[in-house]
Design goal:
Blueprint lengths: L5 H9 L2 H6 L7 H12 L7 H23 L9 H27 L3 H26 L5 H17 L7 H26 L10 H9 L2 H9 L4 H10 L2 H19 L6 H16 L6 H7 L1
Protein name: Heptaprenyl diphosphate synthase component 1
Organism: Cohnella rhizosphaerae
Length: about 290
């Protein structure tokens, strides 16, 4: 039976006129949702829940990600009326997505899943608070940043491990962690092309750990200076280092595929991993090949 893409099913909730008119939404968590759907669909006993669970999880994730956008925007007297309206709409949109997840699962009698996802949301927020606290004090290193970021992306999806058994249960936590790590590293590479998004990025924490005293001091004093950030990213070869980390993590993820109980599932996941093996379009193919 052909499966409907979860992103298509989610449009019923995400393409809400009021939201679309006043604000932009975060990127749909396509990769992780497809990963969850593919594995759950391979568990024959789940039936229609193999679509319900990823759909509900995607809405929870969208709710969290939408609220995160609010935290990164300017507030107070300097914000214009249009910006304030967009902020308010993001708060409402995040709440709306969270409410839809609860409605979907409770209607289907999936109270235990509501409980598990709610607990996962609490854990995501706990990890975020820990990361943001360290970032504010400039006490996080580059590897910690990746570990925290991967966990934040993966916790909701980890919560479905109780439905699995055998090799599925054994591999699921590592699959989610590795996939989330690859997503994060790819996102960090893409941020290098957007100077206004470099503040707080992996490259900053890499320079804080590996840079000269002078460069570290400059970062602390001028963390919002786009020109300085761009210069330091180039000076310390951040793009090359991120490509190497992405290629390494993608290779580890790829090496897990032969362990999966289903060849069909392995082939499906191989397609999901493909973007990680090639990196963003602006990264020279020769660089990826050389690192491989």
């Amino acid at each position: 039976m052909t499966r409907k893409p979860i992103a298509q099913l989610a449009r019923k909730y995400t393409e809400y006129d009021m939201i679309a008119r006043h604000t932009d939404l975060p990127e749909f968590p396509e990769g992780r949702v497809r990963l969850l759907q593919a594995v759950l669909a391979d568990l024959q006993e789940l039936g229609g829940q193999a679509e319900l669970y990823p759909l509900a999880t995607s809405l929870v994730q969208l709710g969290l990600d939408t609220h995160d956008l609010v935290e990164n925007e300017e507030s107070g007297a300097k914000a214009q009326t249009k910006q304030m309206r967009a902020r308010q709409m993001k708060v409402l949109a995040g709440d709306y997505f969270s409410g839809r997840f609860y409605h979907l699962l409770s209607q289907a009698g999936q109270i235990e899943t509501v409980k598990r996802l709610s607990e996962a949301v609490c854990e995501v927020n706990r990890i975020k608070m820990s990361l943001y606290g360290k970032m504010k004090q400039m006490r996080v290193n580059a590897e910690e940043y990746v570990s925290y970021g991967s966990a934040i992306r993966g916790v909701l999806f980890m919560s479905f491990g109780h439905l699995m058994s055998g090799m599925y249960a054994k591999l699921w936590p590592e699959l989610v962690e590795r996939f989330s790590r690859c997503e994060l590293l790819l996102q960090e590479l893409l941020r290098l092309q957007r100077p206004d998004e470099l503040s707080g990025s992996w490259g900053v924490w890499h320079v804080m750990g590996e840079g000269s005293a002078e460069d570290r001091r400059a970062l602390e004093e001028r963390s919002d200076d786009h020109g300085l950030l761009r210069q330091l990213m180039d000076k310390y070869g951040v793009a090359d280092k991120l490509v190497a980390l992405l290629r390494q993590s993608a290779g580890q993820l790829q090496a897990m595929l032969p362990k999966l109980p289903s060849d069909k599932l392995a082939a499906e996941l191989a397609n999901l991993i493909e973007p990680f093996l090639h990196g963003p379009a602006w990264v020279p193919a020769a660089a990826i090949k050389e690192l491989g």
